[in-house]
Amino acid sequence: MSLKVYVPCDTTAVSVGADRVAKMIATQAATIGHHITLVRNGSRGMFWLEPLVEVETEGGRIAYGPVTTRDVESLFAADFLHGGQHALCLGPTTEIPYLKNQERLTFERVGVIDPLSLDDYQTHGGWIGLQKALALSATEIVAEVKGSGLRGRGGAAFPTGIKWQTVLDTSADQKYIVCNADEGDSGTFADRMLMEGDPYCLIEGIVIAGLAVGATVGYIYLRSEYPRCWTTLNEAIRRCEAAGWLGPNIADSGRSFHLEVRLGAGAYICGEETALLESLEGKRGEVRAKPPLPAHVGLFGKPTVVNNVITLACIPLILARGGKYYHDYGQGRSRGTLTLQLSGNIQRPGLIEKAFGLTLRELLYEFGGGSASGRPLRAVQAGGPLGAYVPTHDFDLPLDYEAFAQRGAMIGHGGIVAFDESVDMRRMARFAMEFCAEESCGKCTPCRIGSVRGVEVIDRIEQGQNREANLVLLESLCETMQHGSLCAMGGMTPFPVQSALKHFPEDFER
Fold it and tell me: HSE-up of 365 (CA within 13 Å, CB side)?
């Protein structure tokens, strides 16, 4: 009987040697006469344990990690193919506390299946949502999404069902679904993990969105820095077309949907939905004035749904199990689960999927294990490079859209970057302005000019030049950018600066 061994093909795992480990395991098994089936799965999201090797046993999967090529010979000597004891043995994978204490809905298959196996996907609940959607009217599909309480997981947290309803109600001869896979926020990797580990889930969500609003064409706008996603998605689309899950006759329903992947060019601003649409049309990635909204006048002037990867990946489960099932997770107006990504100065970085309501403190210490340096944590930045810095006295804040907003912070795409007490918050504030100056599309003056002036003002403060007057000037500049910029790029750049000034004034007085 062939024994199954799982070694992740995820970018993070590969960056620390997973390909070499997989090759060594295959070579060693052949040398000693063991017949194994080597499966390249997605990552479980426990990055400090990568490469994480799993073996299928009668009692379930047993995990070993982090495994290097030097460990492979001793693993075979310990009979790891049958779950043998070894210094790297972590026991049953699903019993590892970091994984066991999560509520994995969107990521339930990631790390479990062979990402490109249609059989694996279907065996683990794939296509149920789409098959149910094909039996419903567009209005009924939108009603399920509304009932789930799902809000956009890309940053703005706009109710997904309302956006879909707007596109459904707008008459046009052609409508589009655009998946924003330009995951550019610092400390975020959930989109990449999903696309590399469960691409059919995203494809299924996009097709359901098309059925919901009357769209027959979709595009995945992919970040150029994600070459493995590019390869995986294109192969997944090819297989879906061959199997009838995409194309002119979806699952013999007589309905059609065509999907393409388009590669971005490395511009952060193209994560903003209107700049993304400009880029998709072959133009310079500049922000459009709103209104009109993309839901009315979007790609090629047609009504367009623009959602990010995780939002669309939530859809198959919502249709398969019902909007109420998803709504039962979370709290307040924040329903379902949130895919949190821990990085920075943290002992156990990785991905955590939990229902809304978990506190930052629980996330940072129960999952993350505190700082990697051993020093006390001083702050976290939530929501990417334009997110506010959250100080320790707010670590008991629940991860909830409204709770964060009340404290001048945001959850955004769920990226949480941790900093210990050695961080200089004045330098971090400067970085926010410098980042905006580098990535601004240049269309509006507050963003284009304000960010450059912001760097200059912070430099004068650092040099001790007329410190008090320049601090006042910096606050005034932030207010102008916040209220005068055309989009969130310039409008949110002040958030990290203002939070640094508010919570860490001592760093600006040195």
Answer: 10
* Assigned CATH for 425-508: 1.20.1440.230
Domains of the chain: which residue ranges?
3-100, 118-327, 330-420, 425-508
**Count of C-beta atoms within a 10 Å radius of residue 110:** 28
CATH number of 330-420: 3.10.20.600
Q: How many CB atoms lie within 10 A of CB 456?
A: 15
CATH-assigned architecture of domain 3-100? 3-Layer(aba) Sandwich (3.40)
What span, in angstroms and rounded, lies between the C-alpha atoms of 283 and 300? 11
- Give which of 497, 449, 452 is closest to 471, Cα–Cα: 497
CA gap 23, 374 in Å, rounded: 35
Residues 105 and 108: their CA atoms lie apart, in Å, by 5
Distance, in Å, from the CA atom of 496 to the CA atom of 438, rounded to the nearest integer, reads 16
Q: What is the three-class DSSP state of 305?
A: strand
Interval 35-50: pLDDT, tens: 999 999 999 999 999 9
Q: What's the rounded Cα separation, in Å, for the pair 419 and 284?
A: 36
Q: To which residue do tokens 């196996």 refer?
A: 117
- DSSP-assigned letters across all residues of 79-119: TGGGT---TTEEEEGGGSHHHHTS--STTSSTTTS-TT-HH
Fold of 118-327: Rossmann fold (3.40.50)
Structure tokens at 104: 């994995």
The DSSP-derived string for 415-463 is: EEEEEETT--HHHHHHHHHHHHHHH--S-SHHHHHHHHHHHHHHHHHHT
For residue 148, pLDDT beyond 90: yes
Residue pLDDT, tens place only, 225-265: 999 999 999 999 999 999 999 999 999 999 999 999 999 98
Backbone CA torsion sign across 224, 225, 226, 230: positive
